[in-house]
Design brief:
Blueprint lengths: L2 E6 L10 H7 L5 E4 L16 H15 L3 E6 L2 H13 L3 E7 L8 H17 L18 H12 L3 H13 L14 E6 L7 H10 L4 E5 L6 H4 L1 H14 L4
Parallel strand pairs: 1-2, 1-3, 3-4, 4-5, 5-6
Length: about 240
Amino acid sequence: MTDGLLLIHAFPLDARMWDEQVAALGDAVPIVAVNLPGFGATELAGDVMTMEGAARRCIEELDRAGLDRSVVCGLPMGGYVALETWRSHRERMAGLVLANTRAEADGDEGKKRRREVAETVLRDGTTAILDAMRTLVSLEVSDDLWERVASIVVSQPAEAVAAASLGMAERPDSRPDLPGIAVPTLVITSSGDQLIAPEVSKPMADAIPGAELALIEGAGHLSNMERPAEFTGFLERHLERCGLG
């Protein structure tokens, strides 16, 4: 049986956000950094990218890479997809990393905002939401890193961004699934996250049996990009816990 690492990107970026982790760990473990439907110049999967459809894309990429199982690491939107992967394909999971994400579904206001994002990008293009995307990073982020994040965001097709936003609005509440997660799990959060604060992510670690919690001081929502060495260190140790490395 061949195991590896599956990296699932945030909204509205693509697999390039994982470049530092792929470079650091690629010689030690097989890695699949997936592009979800429509992102990273991949084929769109309709007007709404459901979490189920995104999870299927992940499994297709594992199959293409010849991996039987993987440690699944998802960051924000990627975390929602990782939780769906547990629900639908748990036999393909050797471990789980939930980074800067949450288990509960959106409330009415959150769903409304996601629909508004979809409407905006379809009408005005992805650049129209770029100012709002500053919350993906901490207040202290360097200009160089923000420019890198921004360049990835604006390169995504408006149709993909809209479909993903609508799909996240439809995602289910994953909190009932947490006590049944039966693979080694790491929850990563960061003190500078403007979108999902540590106190929102921490309850997942309490609810998942045996889960570990890691806090990255000062990093924002895209903690793996703002503190790549620290994030990769936590990930590397978790891979060893899961029998990879």
